[in-house]
Write a structure and sequence with these properties.
By secondary structure, the chain is mainly alpha-helical. The protein is built from nine helices and no strands. The protein has helices at residues 2-28, 30-44, 52-59, 63-87, 91-99, 104-141, 147-156, 160-188, 190-199. The radius of gyration is 20 Å and the shape is elongated.
Length: 200
């Protein structure tokens, strides 16, 4: 469990940061969008699990290969939701902010990022699911440790109890991930609830 958690969280952090930064850059800058968005969208349409043979050839079956697969799988959901959230913020709110004399930094921190945050968090929730799915496959095919390897090894010996145990562990880890995502939404979007309470 510990090695699987390490692979999952490391890949999620790296892929999440990459997706967030790219989504932010392309959402805020028209030049960046023209240069990179179409290429990223093209790569996004390639099923990341189909890259397993290539990753094994290039990186072997070590930790780097498995973390790389999780990174790729996580990056695109967070990228597309960050990009969509940033680029669809109400332009009237941005114009209002400019009329109040807000600087570019203040526009971002007070209007653009808060407006995009709900969409970004949807990406985070979806990416958590992709993270576990990718890790299961990666550990089943190219690993000598972890929960996926344990399930694959148990399958070879027809050890049904261990296979079921692995499924339960993955389900529990998925549940914990969902609870974390819920808690993150409650913390980050608390201002929306307060605003709604004031309006009521």
């Amino acid at each position: 469990i510990s090695i699987s958690l390490y692979r999952a969280t490391t890949g999620f952090v790296i892929g999440g940061l990459a997706g967030f930064i790219l989504g932010l850059a392309n959402g805020l800058s028209k030049i960046s969008r023209l240069l990179f968005d179409s290429t990223i969208q093209m790569l996004r349409n390639i099923p990341h699990l189909s890259l397993i043979p290539l990753v094994i050839i290039l990186l072997g079956i070590g930790e780097t290969a498995k973390i790389s697969l999780v990174t790729i799988g996580v990056m695109f959901p967070i990228y597309i939701n960050t990009f969509h959230g940033i680029s669809t913020v109400d332009p009237n709110l941005i114009e209002m902010g400019k009329s109040y004399g807000l600087s570019k930094r203040q526009l971002f921190t007070k209007i653009i990022f808060p407006g995009a945050l709900p969409t970004i968090l949807v990406g985070v929730r979806y990416a958590l699911g992709v993270m576990w799915t990718t890790l299961i496959v990666a550990e089943t095919i190219s690993s000598n440790s972890g929960i996926g390897y344990m399930a694959s090894n148990a399958q070879e010996f027809m050890d049904m109890e261990t296979v079921l145990l692995c499924i339960v562990i993955y389900a529990l880890l998925g549940k914990v991930s969902d609870l974390i995502a819920n808690a993150l939404e409650d913390i980050c979007l608390d201002w929306q609830k307060k605003g709604g309470a004031v309006n009521d």
